Amino acid sequence: MTTAVVGRVLLIEDEVAIRRFLKVALPSVGFEVDEADRGRTGIERAATTAPDVIVLDLGLPDMDGKAVVSAIREWSQVPILVLSVRDAETEKIAALDAGADDYVTKPFSTGELSARLRALLRSRRAPASEAAVLQFGRLTIDLARRVVTVDGAEVKPTRKEFDVLALLARHAGRLVTHKQLLTAVWGPAHLGDTHYLRIAIGHLREKLGDDAAAPEFIVTEPGVGYRLTTS
Known about the structure:
- The protein contains eight helices and twelve strands.
- It has helices at residues 16-25, 39-49, 65-73, 89-98, 110-124, 159-170, 178-185, 194-208, and strands at 7-12, 31-36, 53-56, 80-84, 102-105, 133-136, 139-142, 147-150, 153-155, 176-177, 218-221, 225-228.
C-alpha cells in the first residue's frame, strides 16, 4: 500500500549516514525528502523548491546552522526543525531565537521526529486569520472571550495564566522559549524572572488537570521553554 504524502522535507545535513537513514525512514511515514549537504546549498534549495518543512543540522561544514536559519528567515517562514548533537541549553536557545521552530537532539527516534514534523505542518496550514476559538483535544480556548474549558467544564486561569496559554496555543506544536513567553506576557524587563513563568505553568497544569510527568497539554523542554500539544 502506498503511503499518502504528508509533506515535503528539505534535509540539510552533512552526515551521510543520517541522510541515508532519513531518506528511508521519513518516506515510510509519508514525507518526501530532498537533501543538501552544505548550508549554502540548503539555502538555495529552500528558495528554489519551496519545501513544507526543513530539518537542519547545526554542524555544517561551510557555515553554522544558526546562520542558515537566519538567512532563510530573511524571506521565508517555512517551519525549521533543528536536528543536532548539540544538547546545551545555550545552543537550543540560540537556534530558537534565530528563528527555528523546534529542536531535537541526536540520537533521536523516528517516531518523535515525524510527530514533531507533523505538528509543524499542522501549524503552518492553519488559517492566516486567527480563529477565535482553538480546540486541542479536550481543551478549548476562546481567545475573544478569554474562556478556557476542559471537556466542556470551564476553568479559571488568571489574566497572566491565560496570556501564557493563549501564546502557546497560537504556536501550538511549536516550542515557545522562556524569553518569548516572558517578553510577551510580562515585558522585556522581566527576562530573568523565569520563576514567574514556572509558577504560571504550574497553576495552569493544576487547573487543566495536566500531569507534568505525562503531559496531555503542556510539554516542558527543560531549560528552554514549553509547547502546547496539538493531538
